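queue> pop job 88
queue> type: inverse folding (structure -> sequence)
queue> payload:
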């Protein structure tokens, strides 16, 4: 999942986590008149916020953390991570894996969609098939479902169904993948693997009337730029929600979100980095601050596709060495963990071999002199417009590259949906981005993002040896050999400066004392059906 969000200190050995984007909690809108009353705190509705309108209502298309947090209450897949970071059944009651690791057989729970129709194995197959439809134009279907037999043909338009998904009977679905892949179940936890009614066909979900899932909440209202209301689904197959609704006001200004929380008008609020000192020095707010671990890396994307000098590894290394990431993490962001490698702590034990990550302005100048570019044209640096932390990081990078390389950088704030589109189309010269782990495996941070044919490799960086190492690691059954292959691949991409790590995640969320039962895995906030309000 790419995009810029923010971060917080991690417990139990974790050193990195995501911040504002995933949780997107805690605010109420000044212009909507929604949840403005202080006495609304007595209602049985959880009041959380989105910093933007959702980028999509279709789980087959969602890429960003903010929208993911919204849709996680509405749509479900066969499996998901639980509070213990273990993969458990959601719509699947259980499953078996063949001895060769290529065939997964899932038994479905008795469950209903929000429109009252039962969930069947045919819905699973049709949901995953529709994700590849040209009319849906999913940017992620191949990334998460592409290992299934027949997916490549479906994506090319030479097939009309996902042949590797077999409907055994109404409650049994069999899935065959191309090779044994230790991380395959983790992929199925992603939103594009959600199950929707087969009757939707290849029509994109653009309004709440067709946004039909199986989750504990269903869409009730969506006022563009104002608010979203989710209400409890009475026929939910799991634990029924204790609360009647989740209100999602849309509030773009982070300062406003914090004030609304202080005024008791919202129940949770993610703290922007520039507000950490204010929160930690206020006794009341400090007592309401919760620290939540996430696996995430925040980085500078150097795209040779849109900025020719970045095709040269010397230029990329020069930029890497010219940026003071320690200052960004400790001073600009008030204590975010500095990225000393690509993989966040906890994803893969061991250390990659690399030498070019340190802040060394003199070495940066030497690297630039070794490149085929004696002078560099102005560079546009894009960042998410609604994220204040990203703005401050962009300002520091702009200063560092001018000071240490003589490179003129033009920082540009871009609306979130437009920023994703630019990245996806390869139009971004450079950008402050993040990768939030979709599943807890090094493959998610290496093969999925940077191999030559990876759908998420939007800037088209390519290295044959990196591809070879990742391909071998992806299917290696011996865990020690698999680890060493990924470590070698990580060291190579750092030496080539394919991505420029900046810092890891640190998330802080203010929680109103009336709230209990909010649950998290390392991957994100879990559905709100266990939330209780006083």
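queue> result:
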């Amino acid at each position: 999942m790419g995009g810029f969000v923010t971060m917080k200190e991690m417990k139990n050995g974790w050193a990195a986590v995501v911040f504002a984007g995933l949780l997107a909690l805690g605010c109420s809108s000044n212009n909507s008149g929604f949840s403005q009353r202080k006495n609304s705190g007595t209602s049985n509705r959880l009041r959380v916020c989105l910093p933007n309108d959702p980028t999509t209502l279709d789980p087959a298309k969602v890429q960003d953390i903010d929208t993911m947090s919204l849709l996680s209450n509405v749509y479900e897949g066969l499996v998901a991570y639980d509070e213990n970071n273990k993969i458990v059944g959601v719509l699947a009651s259980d499953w078996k894996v063949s001895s060769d690791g290529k065939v997964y057989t899932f038994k479905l729970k008795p469950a209903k969609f929000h429109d009252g129709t039962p969930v069947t194995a045919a819905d699973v197959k049709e949901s995953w098939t529709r994700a590849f439809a040209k009319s849906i134009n999913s940017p992620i279907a191949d990334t998460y479902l592409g290992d299934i037999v027949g997916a490549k043909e479906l994506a090319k338009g030479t097939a009309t169904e996902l042949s590797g998904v077999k409907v055994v009977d109404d409650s049994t679905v069999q899935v065959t993948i191309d090779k044994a892949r230790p991380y395959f179940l983790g992929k199925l936890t992603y939103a594009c693997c959600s199950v929707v009614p087969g009757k939707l066909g290849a029509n994109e979900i653009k309004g709440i009337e067709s946004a039909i899932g199986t989750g504990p909440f269903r869409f009730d209202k969506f006022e563009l730029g104002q608010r979203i209301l989710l209400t409890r689904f009475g026929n939910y197959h799991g634990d029924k929600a204790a609360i009647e609704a989740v209100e999602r006001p849309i509030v773009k200004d982070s300062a406003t979100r914090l004030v609304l929380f202080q005024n008791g008008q919202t129940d949770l609020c993610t703290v922007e980095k520039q507000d950490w000192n204010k929160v930690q020095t206020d006794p009341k707010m400090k007592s309401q601050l919760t620290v939540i671990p996430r696996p995430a890396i925040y980085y500078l994307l150097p795209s040779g596709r849109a900025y020719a000098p970045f095709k040269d590894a010397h230029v990329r290394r020069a930029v890497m060495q010219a940026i003071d990431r320690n200052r960004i993490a400790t001073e600009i962001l008030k204590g975010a963990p500095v990225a000393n490698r690509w993989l966040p702590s906890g994803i893969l034990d061991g250390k990659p071999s690399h030498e070019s990550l340190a802040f060394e302005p003199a070495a940066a100048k030497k690297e630039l002199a070794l490149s085929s570019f004696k002078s560099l044209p102005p560079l546009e640096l894009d960042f998410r417009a609604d994220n204040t932390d990203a703005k401050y990081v962009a300002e520091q990078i702009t200063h560092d590259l001018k000071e240490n390389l003589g490179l003129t950088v033009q920082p540009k704030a871009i609306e979130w949906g437009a920023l994703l589109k630019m990245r996806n189309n390869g139009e971004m010269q450079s950008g402050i981005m993040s990768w939030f782990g979709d599943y807890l495996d090094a493959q998610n941070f290496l093969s999925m993002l940077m191999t030559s044919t990876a759908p998420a490799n939007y800037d088209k960086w390519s290295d044959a040896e990196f591809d070879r190492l990742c391909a071998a690691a992806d299917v290696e059954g011996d865990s020690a050999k698999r680890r060493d292959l990924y470590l070698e691949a990580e060291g190579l991409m750092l030496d080539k400066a394919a991505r420029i790590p900046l810092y890891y995640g640190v998330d802080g969320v203010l929680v109103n004392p009336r709230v209990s039962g909010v649950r998290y895995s390392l991957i994100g906030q879990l559905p709100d059906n266990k939330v209780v309000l006083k």
